[in-house]
């Protein structure tokens, strides 16, 4: 994998039970060390290349997710972590859950699991980095990047 610059990651907890969030945090510990791939965690969407979301979408966070996504510069990659972010999970029949992240923004990489394991999350982030490089190359060539969904 050839990385031209360190991809910056924005993590947002939609409405999860925090199981996936704890596993995302585990990815940053020395045991899993996602930073070895050059990943930098940021809290600013204007600096982020990868949008990592846990939890389902509800009416309260729908606009927040759209706003964070719109503030990120192109090209960008969205990673849905956990079954709730993928399709609403065990809460999808609840009155307050609208569904997975793809109900409001396009998702490029899906990482299912309840809770998703750190190894799976890192695999999804590495796929996101590769897709981000493809999107950057397409933009450099003057082509509009096409979303490529991966499971």
The sequence of SSEs as H and E is EHEEEHEHEEH
Q: What's the helical proportion of residues? A: 25-40%
Uncertain ranges: none
- Outline the biggest β-sheet: 5 strands, parallel
The fraction of residues assigned to DSSP E strands is 15-25%
Strand order of the largest sheet: 2-1-3-5-7
Q: What is the mean pLDDT? A: 87
The count of strands amounts to 7
From the alpha-carbon coordinates, what is the Rg to the nearest angstrom? 14 Å
Overall outline: globular
Task: Summarize the SSE layout with pairings.
Elements: E1 8-13, H1 19-27, E2 40-42, E3 50-54, E4 57-58, H2 62-71, E5 77-81, H3 83-87, E6 97-99, E7 109-111, H4 118-140
Features:
single chain; about 150 residues; alpha/beta; five-stranded parallel sheet; two-stranded antiparallel ribbon; about 30% helix; about 20% strand
